[in-house]
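Teaching note: in complex prediction, the entire set of molecules is handled at once rather than each chain in isolation. The prompt given to students was simply: 'Predict the structure of this complex.' The entities are:
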Amino acid sequence: MNGIDLSCRLPLADFVLEADLILPGRGVTALFGPSGSGKTTLLRCVAGLARAAGRVEINGECWQDDARGLFLPTHQRALGYVFQEASLFAHLSVRANLEFGLKRIPAAERKVGWDAALELLGIGHLLERGTQALSGGERQRVAIARALLTSPRLLLMDEPLAALDAKRKQEILPYLERLHDELAIPVLYVSHSPDEVARLADHLVLLEQGRVLASGPTSDVLTRLDLPLARDEEAAVRVDAQVLSHDDAYQLTCLGFAGGRIQVTRKDLAVGAPARIKIQARDVSIALTGDNRSSIVNRLPARIVGFGEAAHPAQCLVRLDVSGTPVLARITRLSRDELGLVEGMDVVAQIKSVALLG
Amino acid sequence: MHLSADDWSAIRLTLELACIVTLLLLLVGTPIAWWLATTRSRLRNAVGAVVALPIVLPPTVLGFYLLIVMGPDGPVGMLTRSLGLGGLPFTFAGLVVASVFYSLPFVVQPIQNAFMAMGPRPLEVAASLRASPWDSFIHVALPLARPGFLTAAVLGFAHTVGEFGVVLMIGGNIPGKTQVLSVQIYNHVEAIEYGQAHGLAAGLVVFSFLVLLLLYSVGGARNTLGTGQ
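The expected output is the structure of the full assembly:
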């Protein structure tokens, strides 16, 4: 069977972790939730580092099935695990760390090449160093490459950016995005950062107190008004777009996506290249018609799908359908009432700013 | 200062004893330390306490019971006799066995502390990189615990060189067989041969200092003796 089939039940100190999930067998699936919601434990169950009752099957390969009395120990599971803090072996050089897993798998199973992994994570120049001489971001990149070199059938990442400061995060995120784009290895990614989730995840699982609140395509879950994600200050959606053209006179780049066209400040990207953009709820406002004159360049026709509460009582959330692409807007309740916004209404979404990712 | 033939023989015997005992202690102590560092068994504290007993017991008490257990009517004594090995008391082999018990905590505890300081994470990482538990132990746990092993070896060696009470109880004072340095120094003092006592005692001080200095400066052994860190 294609896909990741998880069924885990494990009593923890404060609650019982109970998850029954069928996840896509490719792309990045984020396990998202507040700290202490059981995300890491779920990941450890998949790895066999924690023993829950249930079943773990990865694209047809069964790692645990209590019904058949099957439980493979971690070292017999073809997985890569990236821990929160880069746990490089201190007694080995960078090169020996990278070779540690590589030399423990048969040559026939080596699908991720040495050069490809080094190039992907940009660590070729670090090989002969000791692990102490690396920055936090470099260590984490080495740890990711080390995991990849075992050619895993599943990559597990436990908040790989959590121990890094904002600058290092920005340094490493593009590598994770390349990972996503260039490798066919499915990834389970634990995170409590909505920003990371919006950037990286294709599929999103929301956990709270050991239970699955929601599981679905990221843009759907992120914009669901009944879930806490939409209420986050940084609530945003990710939109996969393509570079359509460049405007040299005004120094703008035009991006196309299912919902229309968006112009951003000019980027050095080839026409036709994929581009991911992030639209934050706070940057989206609503106008009744498209002809009102304003400085906002990006105005897209949209339909109001629903309303939800925002974190602050003065505001509310509006879920918009921009020709099939869900987008969130955070506006004041005052504006909602003064404009007479109701469900099903056709409006214009004014997007004040767009962040181009990667 | 002139060392007698007996003095030289005591020196040779002591070094031989300490080397053999240290080697045995590392072999015996490592699995015990590993078990104590990783087990969740309820027996953990009890086993830990038994291993640590020689730290608090007077060596004579330990020596006394070892003498009884290894004596002709003791269980170990009967076993060794039935195997045709003869009795252990008043033999070099008996000294080796007694010293292993006596110095065990000084080897187990530094290694145990090193394993505990390492924590489970490196082994989890190794497992995620396809290393079997034994492979991880050899290629990850042992190298990472190296400072603990150095401390353990130094302490085990030094403690064996310095033992006195247990040796007297179990080995006696037989030149060339069980007469080790500490006993020989005692003999000299008893006979008011202070000059010769000095020769051996000062030599021991200098030797111990040099060994410790060498290990601390090149080996990375931790500079804290005893049990805590």
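Point out the following to students. Chain A has a mean pLDDT of 90. Residues 31 and 214 of chain A are 10 Å apart (CA to CA).
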